[in-house]
Please model this.
Amino acid sequence: MDILDQLGAMKDGKLSRRAFNRSLFALGISTAVVPLSTRRTLAAPEDNPTYFTWGGYDIPELFVPYQEKYGELPNFSTYGATEDALTKLRSGFVAEVSHPCMSDVPVWNSTGLFQQIDTSRLSNWGDVFPDLYSYDYNMADGKPWMVPFSWGLTSMVYREDLVEWEDGESWSLQWDERYAQRLGSLASAGDVWWCAAIRAGIDYKDIGTPESFAKVAEVLRQQRPLIRMYSDDTTTLDQALTSGEIVSSLLWNSSTLYLRAAGVPVRFAKPKEGALAYVCGLMLHKDAPKLDRAYDVLDSLISQPSGEFLLNDYGYGAVNRKSFEKFTDAELDERGLGRDPVTILAANHLSSPQSMEWGAATVAELEMIKSGF
Amino acid sequence: MSGANAGTGAVISARPATAGRLSRLMFRHEVLRGYTMLAPALVIMVLAILLPFVLMIVMSFWDQVGFDFDTTPTLQNYREIAEKPIYSALLLRSLWVSGIATLATVLVCYPMAYFVAFHVHRHKMLWLIIITLPFWTSYLMRIFSWKVILGYEGVINSGLMSIGLIDAPLDFLIYSPGAVTLTLAHTWAAFALLPIYVSLEKIDRSVLEAAADLGDSPLVRFFRITLPLSMPGVIAAVFLMFIPTVGDYVTPTLVGGPDGAMIGNLLQVQFGGVNNWPMGAAIAVVMVLAIAVVGLCFLALTALFRRWAT
Amino acid sequence: MTEPSDPLISIRDVSKRFGTFKAVDGVSLDIRRGEFFSLLGASGSGKTTLLRMLAGFEAVSDGRIVIDGQAMEEVPPHFRPINMVFQNYAIFPHLNVRDNIAYGLRKFRPTPAQREAMVDEMLDLIKLPGYGNRRAHELSGGQRQRVALARALILKPKVLLLDEPLGALDKQLREQMQLELRLLQQKLGITFVLVTHDQEEALTLSDRIAVMSKGAVIQVDTPTGLYERPKNRVIAGFIGNMNFFDATPSSTGSPQVDVQGLGLVAVNGRVRARSDGATTLIAIRPEKLALHSEAPVTGGVAGVVQALQYLGGRHMVHVTLAGRDTPVAVALQGGQADVTLTPAPGQPVWISWKDDAVLVLDAD
Amino acid sequence: MSGRSHSHRPNRGLQAYAALFMVFLYGPILIIPLFSFVDALYVRFPIEALTFRWYGELWRREPVIDALGNSLYVAAIVSVVSTAIGVFAAKAIARNRVPGTGAIVTFMMLPLVVPGIIFAVAILIVLNRMGVALSLYTVMAGHLVVCLPFAIWSLLPRFEGFDPSMEEASGDLGENGWWTFWRVTFPIMAPGIAASLLMTFTVSFDEFIMAFFLSGTQQTLPIFVWGQLRFPSQFPSILALSTLILAASFATVFLSLWIGRIGLPKAATGEIPK
Model:
């Protein structure tokens, strides 16, 4: 399946004559009047719950069942990093559904801001891979704190034509002097620290110890002179890969999808040391004012169509087993994924819950390292 | 009443003779009236400037414990700032980058301001509008534009490559303190230009004629009359640009690269990922102090220079 | 109707301080009903401040102002039965002439017809019918002034204040407007209070004039009174031309003083010599001096013509007297009996005066 | 070089410099509209194909439109409130002999010369301590601080050039302060007020740092754009939107400066033509 075609179809196909006229109208009329007058009257934000998520998940494609039911979308609020999100929630911001990762659950729970999820209210719950939520820190009395929503890997996306492997795909690429100043990296500790720990040969069981901390910091300091850019915006990294400004970057598997679609010869590395695996999901606010619809948001996000969209357009792993039916093994492999999450997660390193102090310390240390100290 | 008023006198007698107590009080006290009108602005300023500043200073002596603050006063944050080299290094880099950007901007803007003040005779206002317009465009987008220009496959690199001057893209254009400087200069040019223009425009043209009459050549006249008289504008421009740019973190994030980070980035993460608000408050306090010191030094230097020049 | 002497405005010990500066210092004045009253003084003399206190734009620092029996200290301008013509007229630039004139009528809720009638009446009064739809910037200075007048007069104020209303006009227009103002005031019978620095204007227009200097009122009198009986050197010098002479009382109780250059001059006992024998000041108007080509029978003083000044319709002859540095000015009126010559510089002449021409002034 | 007698002689060097300056100023700005028509997800040279589709797509993106709506909402309220407060403050500063005016003006201009991040952080701390949840209203509060100096900046010279006897005349003719304001001050000041409204609107609309720290659920457009920088598929429509906003901003500022200028010589000062 040609992704570019599909992206194009999604855009052009849906751009019917009416929509086209409407867009012309939008162009013609001052940007000031239209959104206030029409959009505001169509949607009634006060009826819908708020989904607090990373930018990029605030799109209609993930809410097909919800839209069918209510004819509207939930409200969205987005953030760039889970740390920022938690800060905002703690400062009194109430969003019914928020979107951290599995290893964040203990820390997030410690704020007392969340409630356990009654899975009997989720029609799609039966199709969710149990291995994605049955961690002891996530379950209490058979009820999860977090409903898984996506899973995936953090590894390197590299230019096939520009990188020469010496000994098979390995994390050593990101530390390879030959590519000094031609390497990129994500910027957040949640990815960088954990990947560096793999490089340093640290078992995730021991990642919280001071010795490991020092080891990882040292590995990162070694890497720092080789890195041309640290960025949280994947567009920048993707673009640098496209132009050949960098040959490899620490990235999520989603980038491969876009870049290959644009004809850039990139590949998502499967390092022999294993990649960082993560499961992210949804938590329910304890004071959720629109609880009923919030459950519909959850249900919509773990539905088959949402999972298909995630796999197809974003390249992230879905949690609903039905979502995988449409894809061939090759297509899944191209995304660095597989049909069975369990094997993939087992083959790589799944991040584990750590204390908040440790998290903050890694962020602070990484900031120093990035700045050259 | 005379005949001219006949027929309308009844209407006029309706004039009331008393005023409310409050309005009488207001009438008697002009100062009170003035403060009443200033009150909303002052209240906002106190609530949104003074109070936050005080609380920020107070918080800088606290300590973050998990999600909470330990409010026992401690100098720990300041100690850490003093001891760890990253803080002073980034602060100095910020001051340096802002300083260079300010200097460059003022140097670039002065001739333009001079041109508009002395060589534009018609449509002066139009010129000013056109010069200041870019300042009102989106901050992020202007930075983004520079990414496109300086980028690896950007305007400059592809231009140079297409004319065969270089074989491979120059990779030092972007992700460097230089890129930050250039972007800042562009972003703030209009803001720096205006005060210089205003001070040039204010110069009494007859003073220049007098200098010419007394035998000064145009160049000498510029250095003896025009430049000294426009110094207040230059100083204003320096302050208006230097101070806000020291705290910028978006520009370094987008075009600075690993070596372009500034103190603003460090400050921002304290309120985000690091989640150490008291530390962030302490950085902010130190930053304000550093800016104040640099500003005062600059003022003292210009004063010294003026005394020396006269 | 009330007695003309009944004061409409009573100003008692009024002072105005701006910080440490006293702009008006303990002024007391009565302004009578229906009178054309002027405040005359140089700029900075406090006359405008006093006017603005009457209008209510400045609060009084001390003292009281009573208008028509009502204390004004706490009455804001919009409740005062007073209207004003501003120095620059303050014609509202966003309104046309009609709306400017009708501005103050809003509170009285006139019907549109009433409003139109009143405005038309005013336009007739100021002789600008048909100018109703013009804007301020389409009017000449004189026309603006009339609109400002109409705008104030339509409210039938008890007092109309005029702050240097003619200052911005050229000489010819100014004289014409002076006449019109005077006629208008007589026609309407409203009390006018005029502030001016132009003594001629004050003399021409006013029933009474208060001369102000350094925040204080020096003298209040009719124009004739001010001219004929100025109280001190400032007033005497301010209004008309004047020859000043230093004089020394000749001896205690003597009706004569010893005047520098003039010799002994009779002052009809109007001056009491001070025991210390200090210098006193006398003054004689140039037109009260007579010029003779030959020594008169009695009381002439000899001198020499220094210069001749033609002032249009009359000559001013400057005569040097022995024992006096400053030449004495003598006005030669047309038809003056004793003038038998057109004096030429260098010619010896004699001057003489009548006893009642001699003014004895308060020492500054 | 200078002086009236010389200044009419065109200086070729300076003219060339001015031209270069304008290129430096406008070159980067024009990149955005240019790439909003480029048919590629990634911004790169050389340009291969042009398209209008990002503009069409823009209209389908509800969050974009919502963010735009939020920004317009915030900017509208902030501009009205800051201008209203600015009018009174500027009037008091220009008219009333209030002690400490100089200090007050300096204080009010502070946001112009203090890094925005400091204010944002300080206000965030206060809100956090007071337990105020972040929302569009907290963004408005932050923007108010940023916009007030601009409002006063654009209003103060007009009040200083506005003949106080206009208001006195109104009081003299029987109107109290309230009516005087609406019948005289407001109409005469209207161009200045319009200029202030448009200027503060633009400042608020584009403001990033305050909004970054102080926004809650609902994002303003710059924050949204910041979040979208990482999503290649969304980026071209952000460029399209930015182009539209650029055009609107240019139109608005041009209008505000133009409005601010007209009527200044005669209408607002009430000067007698000489």
About this structure: Chain D is about 75% helix and 0% strand. The longest helix of chain D spans residues 62-95. Residues 1-7, 263-274 of chain D have pLDDT under 50 and may be disordered.
